Amino acid sequence: MAVKAPSRKILDLLPSADPVRFLAEDGSTVTAPDEYVLPSDELLLEGYRRMVLGRRFDTQATALTKQGRLAVYPSSRGQDACQIAAAMALQEQDWLFPTYRDSVALVSRGIDPVEVLTLLRGDWHCGYDPVARRVAPQCTPLATQVLHATGMADALRRKGENGVALALVGDGGTSEGDFHEALNFAAVLRAPVVFFVQNNKYAISVPLARQSAAPALAYKGIGYGVRSVQVDGNDLPAVLSVLTAAVEHARSGREPVLVEAHTYRMDAHTNADDATRYRDEQEVEHWRAADPIERLTAYLRARNLLNDEIVNTAQADAEALAADLRARMNADTVPDPLELFDHVYAEPTPQLREQRAQLAAELAAELAAGSQAQEG
Amino acid sequence: MTAMTMAQALNTALRDALKEDDRVLVFGEDVGPLGGVFRITDGLTRDFGEERCFDTPLAESGIVGLAVGMAMGGFRPVVEMQFDAFAFPAFEQIASHVAKLRNRTRGRLALPIVIRIPYAGGIGGVEHHCDSSEGYYVHTPGLKVVTPATAEDAYWLLRDAIADPDPVVFLEPKKLYWSKSDVDLSTRRVKPFGRAEIVRPGRDVTLVAYGPSVPVALQAAEAAEQDGISVEVIDQRTLVPFDDATLTESVGRTGRCVVVQEAQGFGGMGAEIAARVQERCFHLLHAPVLRVSGFDIPYPPPKLEHAHLPGVDRILDTFDRLQFDDVPDPRHLADATTATLTATATATAAMAATMTAQKGATV
C-alpha cells in the first residue's frame, strides 16, 4: 500500500525541520526560508540598542538582589534576542502576557524599570498599569497566562480592535495543562494570539529531555491545528522576522501561531538557585559563544552598519539606565499595610473593614510603643 | 405573579442580562444548542446568536482562563461549570487569578466574571456529581460566593452577580432547579446582595441555612413548632460577603443557634458561622452553637445519600441538645450570692479530686 503524503494543510501547520536562522554564530549570514524577510538595517540597529540596554538592566537587577534591594530576580540573560523581539514585534494596540522571567521585554515595551521590579522588590502588586501599557501582570503560576492571552485575543477580535495578544511561556510551561488548553481553545475560537515559547533548556533544574520527548516543542502545535514555527532564539534578525510574521499572520489570518525559540538561560533560575548542581560549565561555555548580542554586533560590524559611536552611545545610555535604576531602587519604600485591604474587592466587605481597623490599631500601638521606648 | 422553577428563573436572568448589556457573554460545556445539561441556558444561542452564548472545548481551566482574558478585555463572562466536582480543574485559575487580579493590579483591572456551578446533592447523582464545594470558594479572598434557595432569589442574585464589579461564584442547588414557586419579577422584593433574609420568624432557636438546606430547615422548623419550639430560619443567601448583622441580631433574641449545611462538616462554612456567632453572642447564648451537616466522607452513592444528607430528623435531634431543660449555672443568675458560688466551687473541687483519684487508681 502506498504511503499517502501529508496534505498541504498539514504541511502548513508543521514547523520547518530546522529553526529559522539568518545569522550563524559568528555573525555570518545563512539562508533563511523565503517566507521570512531579513528586518531592515534600521530595525536591526534598534534591536541592537535595545539588547544592550536590556542586558544592562538585567545585570543591574541581579546586582540589586545581592544588595538586598530585590527579594529575588529571575534573569533572562542569554534570551535577550527573544525578549527584545517580543517587544518589537507588537504594535501599540496589541497585548503582551509575560512571565516572571520577562522583565526585559517589559522594559523594552516602555514600562518604567522601577515599576517592572515593584513586585520583586517586595511589594504586593505588579507595579504598572496593565491597561495603559497593554501588558498583563507578570505571571508566576506557569502557563496560566497563556489562557488569558487567548481570552484577550478573542475579546480584541470581538471588539473589532485588530489587536493581537502575545503570550510568553517557557519550555517547562509547555508541560502544563493550561498551555494545551490554550492552544486548543485558540485554534477552535480562531483567536489572534501568538504563543511564544522561549525554550531556554531548563525548568529550574530539569533539562529539556526530561520535560518533553517531542522532536521540538513547536510540534505541539500540529495536534491542535495551530500553525507552528521554530527559530534560533539567539539570532535577533530571525526571531524578530519570525515573530513579526506570526503577529501579522494572527492579526490578518485571525488564527493562532506557535513560535518556539531555541535559546539558553545563561544564569541560574534566580539568584537563589545554584545551577552548578545540574549543568556543567562546558555546556554553558558552548552557549556563551552563541551570545545574541555578540552575534548581531559581528553582523552589523561586518556590514559597516555599526560604528564605535553607536556602540558608545548605546553603552552610555545603558549605564545611565542602570545608574537611574540603582538610585531609585536604593530609596526605601514603605508600602502601606492598610492598603492590603483596599483592592481585594471593589468595595471592602464589612469583615475587611473590621480587619483593616484592627490592623490600624495594632500599627498605632506599635508606633506608640516605639516612641515611648525612644523617649525612655 | 407567576409560578416558575428555579431553572426558569435563572434562564430568565441570563436572558435579561444578555438583552441589557452587550458585554455579557455566556459560555461553557453544552450551553449552546443543547441549553446546558440542566437546561439553564435553554434557547440562549437560538435567541442571542453564537457570538453571545457558545459551547467551548471540554476543559474547565480553559473556560475560566479564557473568561479571565475576556474580562480583562472588557467583557462580562458568565461561565458554566457542568457539575461541582468538574469545576476542580479550574481551581488554579479561580484561586490564583480570578480571585486575585484586582489586588495584583492595585485595582486597575477588575474581573466581573460569574462562575455558575450546579452543586450539592439530593438528585441521585453518581460519583463526582454531588459535591458541596462552597468551602473552597468561601476560603478564597477576592471571590464573592452566592447560593439562592428560591426561584425569585435566584433571578435577582444572578442579575446582581452579573452586574457586580467582582468575580462571583454562583452556586446553584441542583435539587432545587425544578422546585416551583411564585415569582414576581416586576419589582424587586428580595434583599440586596450581601444581606441574609429571615425567612421564618421564631423565638427559641435561630436555624441558619443556605442553598439546598433552606427548604429542609423550614420543614424542620414546622416540625419543631409541633414540639413547642419556635424556630427562626435565616437564609444566608450570600456566603461572601457575609451578613453578620442579621444573624447576630437574631441569635441575640433567640439565645440559641443551629447551623445546617449539606457539605461535610470539618473545616466548613458551618464551622465559620458557628465561630462567628459565639464570638459575637457568647453572653447571650443559652447553649452551644451546634452544627448539622453531612458526614466527613466522600459524597455517597445514590442508594445511600439519604443517610448522609442532613434531614429534618437530624435537625430535630440537634434541637434536643440545645439544653432547653438544663438548670442554669448559678454563677450566671443575677441574684447569685457568695454562698452559692462558694458551694459551687467546693463541689467542683471535690469532683476534680475524685477524678484525679480514679485516674491514679487506673494507672
UniProtKB/TrEMBL annotation, chain A:
InterPro entries named in the record: Alpha-ketoacid_DH_E1_comp, DH_E1, PdhA/BkdA, THDP-binding
Protein name per the record: Pyruvate dehydrogenase (Acetyl-transferring) E1 component subunit alpha
Cofactor(s) this protein requires: thiamine diphosphate
Alphabetical list of PANTHER family matching this protein: 2-OXOISOVALERATE DEHYDROGENASE SUBUNIT ALPHA, MITOCHONDRIAL
GO molecular function terms attached to this record: magnesium ion binding; oxidoreductase activity, acting on the aldehyde or oxo group of donors, disulfide as acceptor
Organism whose genome encodes this protein: Actinospica durhamensis
Stretches assigned to the Dehydrogenase E1 component domain: 48-324
GO biological process, one term: branched-chain amino acid catabolic process
Gene3D superfamilies named among the record's database cross-references: 3.40.50.970
Keyword flag Oxidoreductase: yes
Designated gene of the protein: pdhA
TrEMBL record, chain B:
Origin superkingdom: Bacteria
CDD domains in UniProt: TPP_PYR_E1-PDHc-beta_like
Cofactor: thiamine diphosphate
Keyword entries, A-Z: Oxidoreductase, Thiamine pyrophosphate
Ranges of residues in domain Transketolase-like pyrimidine-binding: 4-179
Name of the protein described by the UniProt record: Alpha-ketoacid dehydrogenase subunit beta
GO molecular function annotation: magnesium ion binding; oxidoreductase activity
